[in-house]
Amino acid sequence: MTTAAPRHGADNGASDKVGSAMRIIVHNTKCQGHARCSAQAPEIFKLDDEGYILPGDIEITAGEQLLALQGAQSCPERALEVDRTPAAQREPDSVERGPDELKSTSVNVAARWPG
Amino acid sequence: MPVSRVPDHVPREMVRDFSLFTSPGMQRTPNGDPHAAVACVHSGPPIFYSPYNTQDGLGTWVITRAADQRRVLQDAENFSSHRKLFSAALDESWPTIPLELDPPAHGVFRSLLNPLLSPKRVAELEPAVRERAVLLIDRIAASGSSCDVTKDFAFPFAVSISLRFLGLPDDRLDTFVRWGQELLHGDRPERSAAARTIVDFIDELTALRRKEPVDDFISFIVQAELEGRRLTDEEVRGIGVLVFVAGLDSVAAAIGFDLAYLARNPEDQELLRSEPERIALAAEELLRAYPPIQMLRVARKDIDFEGAPIRKGDYVSCATMIANRDPAEFECPNTVDLARENNRHAAFGYGPHRCIGSHLARREIVIALEEWLARIPAFRIKKGTSPITYGGHVFGIENLVLDWS
Ligand code: HEM
Ligand code: SF4
């Protein structure tokens, strides 16, 4: 199960500034391959060959925010968490992980079937 | 109420006279609305005990809230799927696969089967699905201005797609549909006979494909390697029987309920006909409002759940038609709103057993509605006829005679 704490940013308006876009935290162990996220926004939510979301959090640019939000909110398993903390305020390691690097991560099938 | 069937550990005040099989509106009912009938549970407690709530008349706990159903269905460690519903009809005990396996064994088989029904694969099947829909609807349109849409379209369409997926010819379609009906809705002897017939059929097919593989589903299964070995006959049977049965009536039931709704709501019908780009979203709302399936789990240990003393071995029912009418999850749950957004309904279940056919089923439903509305003018329920609905393990609708004269 997930260990990441919810990180919804304080509603101070900072997240609306260009360049401080949001991030989608992907809880892979919860993903069951409904593919509703990618039906909303295939460019943002990429699936593997079995139809489950690729691992790794997804950085969202300012222009994609609405689409990303809709995609995250369409997940029946609640596997996609919206993180509005401005990038500058997050722990450094999570900021450095760019989307391209994440796409090449191989799929950890075992992680989906705990126990 | 037959209180005698209630196990001793169930507090009497948690027993309710409610059943997806025997409550009012669950038996064959002209002009019925079984989904609305079950929505009444939301005025009661989040969990209660129903003394008669399976095909065999066993008692189950009933989980009413969508959020609680998610908890149960996502938690295979406490709530097992290993209940052998199919083989019990034969007094045998092999599981259907992956439906009645728990993780981690479940995941191994899911990974084998997932690519065959992934969104990508389904996109490739789309032209064949559409061609089938167009052929059937054109034939109906050419032959008059009325038809029994379940018999003439929903079943032949859904079952032929399923047969094509399995690599079976269409010529025995009517026979297969009858087997499915007897299995899901027959009395105990009928069900046993149907189950035996289906098992023998899949076993025979398996033997044939082992000898001489062709390009079809069973051949894929018998040739597949799993953890360095071939599948056993019993495993092939568990998969073959399930995929055969799963495609027989769920999609047909969904299409039937959808067209019944549109026949009774001409404004929504016209909206989708004139703006077909709305159909995909509308189909989700219709899946929310009219889902066909009740899921069952078996408690693996004693669990206290929302004040209910669930004991090891108890059945726990998660009915999608109940979750989908939960007011805590859906605003105005009993109103059909074809433009509803963020529609995270439970029609295909939650957790590791999420319907593996969901991507195919969605495409079938959307294509059926698109092609039907494009080819059939304003339709209504034929005067003097009444569609028959029924509840149970899989809800359904029959005798849906549409008229567009
Ligand atoms: C509208 C149509 C359909 C609905 C509403 C539906 C619903 C469901 C539900 C609720 C489950 C979960 C059962 C559970 O957790 O106990 C399920 C599982 C399953 N469905 Fe469907 N289904 C539909 C169509 C199909 C089709 C067309 C196929 C075949 C290609 C299919 C194959 C399966 C299989 C194999 C499973 C077992 C998955 C597993 O246990 O991992 N379904 N379905
Ligand atoms: S909608 Fe949720 S469960 Fe489905 S693929 Fe996307 S993340 Fe996974």
Automatic annotation (TrEMBL), chain B:
GO molecular function (one): iron ion binding
Gene3D superfamilies per the UniProt record, alphabetical: Cytochrome P450
SUPFAM superfamilies in the record: Cytochrome P450 (SSF48264)
Names of required cofactors: heme
CDD domains: P450cam-like (cd11035)
Role noted for this protein: Cytochromes P450 are a group of heme-thiolate monooxygenases. They oxidize a variety of structurally unrelated compounds, including steroids, fatty acids, and xenobiotics.
Name of the protein described by the UniProt record: Cytochrome P450
